[in-house]
Design brief:
Blueprint: E1 4-8, E2 16-19, E3 21-25, E4 37-40, H1 43-49, H2 54-57, E5 62-64, H3 67-75, E6 80-83, H4 91-96, E7 103-109, H5 116-122, E8 126-137, H6 139-143, E9 151-154, H7 157-166, E10 174-177, H8 180-184, E11 193-194, H9 200-205
Parallel strand pairs: 1-2, 1-9, 4-5, 4-7, 5-6, 7-8, 9-10, 10-11
Antiparallel strand pairs: 3-8
Helix pairs in contact: 1-3
């Protein structure tokens, strides 16, 4: 059986799980009373929110990028407004389904992969942004060496970028990515398979296809 490497901040019992990122949280001053909805694009956002008084934000429904980010907000007591398909570009249509008078707060990482906020703002939607965490490549992923026939599962563009800093994807490696945005981070010559479901479990379901 091929060894399976999962590059993620989460783990899976059937893989060699490599933590891809170290997270630093920030706590900018935020007046949550100014907003109607939150935008949450990672589990780290919900962790960052726990730094604040829950009564200030918990009444705000959140547009979440994926099922997993939605679960993270529900876990701390929040309500989910709608769920995207796992990558930022799918949030544009979700936002456009609401009145332009609504005010959104996007709680984000320092570096983001999608320009969905810019697209929506250019069409007259009111979206403010607050940087609540920063991701950096972990020492673990920078030091990881994989077997030449290993299956590599990447769950974010940053997990690809961090792996490629000190390693290469070989011709015998098989690559699974969690979504289209992650796929864009791969070198152009790399063959890959995109998970049907934008979850880690979804990546494992398609192992027989690679």
């Amino acid at each position: 059986m091929r060894p399976i490497y999962l590059f993620s901040i989460s783990s899976h019992p059937d893989a060699i799980s490599v933590n891809s990122l170290d997270i630093t949280f920030f706590k900018p001053d935020i007046d949550f009373s100014k907003y109607d909805y939150l935008i949450i694009t990672s589990k780290q956002t919900s962790k960052a929110l726990t730094q604040y008084n829950k009564e200030e934000y918990i009444h705000l429904p959140a547009l979440c990028i994926s099922v997993q980010s939605a679960k993270s907000y529900e876990t701390i007591g929040g309500k989910v407004l709608a769920v995207g398909e796992g990558y930022g570009d799918t949030l544009v249509d979700k936002i456009k389904s609401f009145n332009k008078e609504k005010k959104w707060l996007y709680l984000r990482a320092k570096v983001v992969a999608s320009n969905f906020v810019e697209v929506c703002k250019n069409e007259g939607y009111h979206i403010d942004e607050a940087v609540v965490y920063e991701s950096q490549c972990s020492k673990e992923i920078l030091q990881t060496k994989v077997e030449e026939d290993a299956v590599l599962i990447f769950t974010s563009p940053s997990s690809v970028e961090c792996f490629l800093r000190n390693s290469e994807i070989g011709v015998k490696n098989r690559v699974i990515v969690i979504g289209k945005t992650t796929a864009k981070a791969l070198p152009k010559n790399v063959q890959y398979t995109i998970s049907d479901e934008k979850t880690i479990d979804g990546c494992f379901k398609i192992l027989n296809k690679v």
